[in-house]
Amino acid sequence: MAREEKEACLGQGFLSFEQGVAGVELLIVLATLGVLIGIVAMSLDDMERCARNREISAEMRALQVAIDMYNTRNQAHGAPPIPAQKTPVVVSTDDPLAAPYFQRYLSRSTKFRYTWEAGGARLQVAGP
């Protein structure tokens, strides 16, 4: 084929060598972006798990402080001890059964479920 014929064919929709290289470069860039997006997604998952653990820890500390405050202030004046909670429960400040124990010492209901022994001992998180 003569040079003029090749150029005419390339102009009619056939790929040239330069266009082929651009396609390979585009595939390499897309593959690199895919790998980077995967790495970012995995690190975001780790950050979410870490944030959840910190949230559980902070809420558990607040609940333990509320239990300790009740035990210190109320039991000294003859109030009954906090009963054991064997089944996991969200501690609600609106719950009339929990009100004498937690309403005064918690500003909001808990997000996670907890269990504890009598008097509030061995506080454990059971999950959302």
- Tally of structural domains: 1
Number of helices: 3
* Mean pLDDT over the full residue set: 80
Q: Which structural class do you get from the secondary structure elements?
A: mainly alpha
Strand segment tally: 3
Unreliable residue runs: none
Distance between the terminal alpha carbons, to the nearest Å?
74 Å
Q: Compute the gyration radius: what is it?
A: 32 Å
- Tell me the series of helices and strands, N- to C-terminal: HHEHEE
Biggest sheet features: 3 strands, antiparallel
In what order do the strands lie side by side in the largest sheet?
A: 1-2-3
What is the helix fraction of residues, given as a range? 40-55%
**Estimated share of beta-strand residues:** 5-15%
Q: Please state the overall shape, judged from the principal axes of the Cα atoms.
A: rod-shaped
Tell me which oligomeric state these chains represent.
single chain
